[in-house]
Amino acid sequence: MAAYLLNLGVLISIYSILAITLNFIMGYAGIYSLAHAVFFGVGAYAGALAAMHLSASIFVTVPVAMACAAVLSLALALPALRVRGEYFVAASLGLQVLAVTIFAEWKSVTGGIGGLIGIPPVDLFGQAVYRPASFFPLSLAVLAIVIVVTRLLVRSSFGRNLTAIRDSESAAASFGKNVPLIKTISVVISAALAAVAGTLYAGYLSFINVESFMLDTSVLVMAMVIIGGTGTSWGPILGAAILLLLPGLLSYLSFLPPTEIGAIQQTLYGLGMAILMIFRPGGLVGRGKARETKSAAKVAVGQKPPAVEAKAEGAR
Amino acid sequence: MNAQAHMPAAGAGNEVLLEIRNLDKHFDGLKAVSDVSMDLRAGIVTTLVGPNGAGKTTLFNLITGHLTRSGGSVRWLGRDIGGMKPYRVARLGIARTFQDLRLFGDMTVEENVLTVMEPGALPFSLSGPSTAEKRARVAEVLERTGLSAKARTRAVDLAYAERKFLSLARIMATRSRLWLLDEPASGLDPNSYELFLRLLREEVASGVTVCIIEHNLDIVVSISDRIAFLDRGRLLADGDPQTVLDDPDLAAIYFGDRT
């Protein structure tokens, strides 16, 4: 039981890192990416290969993984950020599909469908960390670092630049902000930090294959962000915890037929998402709907009449 | 239309900051701006007037790079800036407001002003003013625009006049040399507009050059050193306020009894 909970804790930490890093671009820069699992995967493969062929030290595997994901994210960011938001979603979906093919087919590097096996455990100051009891604190510590780094960025001038761009790209540009460059940097940071989660994942399981890095994972992580609260600090972690705990909790309900659990789970996800988006579009942690509409109404009421009056006045 | 002929206007001897020559902008055959030539001279207020659709905002968009010209040139201190991206134009010292304000809605009033002082793309700025200096400047600008009490309010939650002043506060904070203001006073109540006029005069006195689009003739008369009259994309007159405003042909166009 303890091992089961610790294992869940590790997975929640890893997926929280993914959700936080996706929220960094979704919530603050307004960039919706369906390719987050690609950077998770690149981090996992690069970290695993570094551990197998270079050194299993976390101070080697993590930087290698981050660098690979950062470089690859440029391939997505540079062409795609020049176009409007909707096209970025499509471009990221394209990258996701392409990456899955490469993960599955580039046998000499990724091991193809069979994946990579026998990945050495994470090495921290010469100690192999592989038992859930010791891996859980490590994953929590890494999660804490990712939280601190992203919070610092969001509160810095960089975070304000992202929010400014999200709220009005043309106004941001007219105040001297290089919009494509700032967006590119945000995608690179997000991808590099997602790769950290990949490295932890590979070292923890000692086996990876393409199935962990497919479109479902990208969608799952996006769901974690939306359910928890896009653009909030703690929402993505709450979303990750809920979506990973739900299957386990369902299996405790003895009246549910075990063979149907999968289908029930999917139905609950779907219903839950739909209900949430209707009543709390900001997510569980996000601002409630009432306040949004109130301020929107205020703007509408406050803005229109004076503008009309002014025209009338001018033409008097 | 002979209003253009030899009128000595205020600031006539001042340095030309922005020189517009034969500027054209066509949208699929519609001439939004057609063969406009004019100078924005340092230290004065030049007002763009004209009926709706005259091309005033389009002219701003051509200067700031939000639109690409079809022909002609725009020079800033002698350097051609046509075709430059908006962020580069902004960094030269040309700031603008938008008719629809385009505030950073989810950010607080304070953050809206702070972020315009931080154009750098990197997460950590190695040069430029310190955080303390920036905060002090934010506080000063908010004080002057009467927004101090709202510093921590989100921009979307502001009342209409407050939103207009936040738009102004943002460009005050940039310390730009040239301000392009798109109907900054429209819809303001009398008290607010007294404050607006006072701020504008103070800024001009401290060396800011202003080009403003304004419909309210009371405001136009009280702030303009020079008036440029546009209609259907063409510059019909450019000179001292009284001469332009007294021209009966222009008045006929402005008030809509075109014959």
List the helices and strands and how they pair.
The complex is a heterodimer of chains A (316) and B (259).
Chain A: H1 2-29, H2 36-53, H3 58-80, H4 85-105, H5 107-110, E1 116-117, E2 122-124, E3 127-129, H6 132-155, H7 157-167, H8 169-174, H9 179-205, E4 207-208, H10 215-228, H11 235-252, H12 261-279, H13 289-314
Antiparallel strand pairs in A: 1-4, 2-3
Helix pairs in contact in A: 1-6, 1-9, 1-10, 1-11, 2-3, 2-4, 2-9, 3-9, 6-7, 6-9, 7-9, 10-11, 11-12
Chain B: E1 16-27, E2 30-41, E3 45-49, H1 56-64, E4 71-76, E5 79-80, H2 86-92, E6 94-96, H3 109-116, H4 131-144, H5 160-174, E7 178-182, H6 190-205, E8 209-213, H7 217-223, E9 226-231, E10 234-239, H8 241-246, H9 248-254
Parallel strand pairs in B: 3-8, 3-9, 6-7, 7-8
Antiparallel strand pairs in B: 1-2, 1-4, 4-5, 9-10
Helix pairs in contact in B: 3-4, 3-5, 4-5
Task: Outline the structure in words.
- The complex is a heterodimer of chains A (316) and B (259).
- In chain A, a hairpin with a 2-residue loop joins strand 2 (122-124) and strand 3 (127-129).
- Chain A has two domains: 2-223, no CATH class; 291-316.
- Residues 289-316 of chain A have low confidence and may be disordered.
- The longest helix of chain A is centred in the N-terminal third of the chain and has 28 residues, at 2-29.
- In chain A, helix 1 (2-29) runs parallel beside helix 6 and helix 7 (157-167) packs across helix 9 (179-205).
- Helices cover 76% and strands 3% of the residues of chain A.
- Chain A has 316 residues and is mainly α.
- Chain A has helices at 2-29, 36-53, 58-80, 85-105, 107-110, 132-155, 157-167, 169-174, 179-205, 215-228, 235-252, 261-279, 289-314, and strands at 116-117, 122-124, 127-129, 207-208.
- Chain A has a two-stranded antiparallel ribbon with strand order 1-4. Chain A has a two-stranded antiparallel ribbon with strand order 2-3.
- By secondary structure, chain B is of the alpha/beta class.
- Chain B has a domain at 12-93 and 211-259: Rossmann fold (3-Layer(aba) Sandwich).
- Chain B contains nine helices and ten strands.
- Chain B has helices spanning 56-64, 86-92, 109-116, 131-144, 160-174, 190-205, 217-223, 241-246, 248-254; strands spanning 16-27, 30-41, 45-49, 71-76, 79-80, 94-96, 178-182, 209-213, 226-231, 234-239.
- Chain B has a six-stranded mixed beta sheet with strand order 6-7-8-3-9-10, sandwiched between helices. Chain B has a four-stranded antiparallel beta sheet with strand order 2-1-4-5, covered by helices on one side.
- In chain B, strand 9 and strand 10 (234-239) form a beta hairpin.
- In chain B, helix 3 (109-116) packs across helix 4, helix 3 packs parallel to helix 5 (160-174) and helix 4 crosses helix 5 (160-174).
- Chain B is globular.
- Residues 1-6 of chain B have low confidence and may be disordered.
- The A-B interface holds A 153, 156-158, 160-161, 163-164, 166-168, 170-179, 181-182, 185, 231, 295-296, 298-299, 302-303, 305-307, 309-311, 313-316 and B 52, 64, 66, 85-87, 89-91, 95-96, 98, 102-107, 111, 114-116, 118-125, 154, 156-157, 159-160, 163, 170, 174, 183, 186-188, 214-217, 255-256.
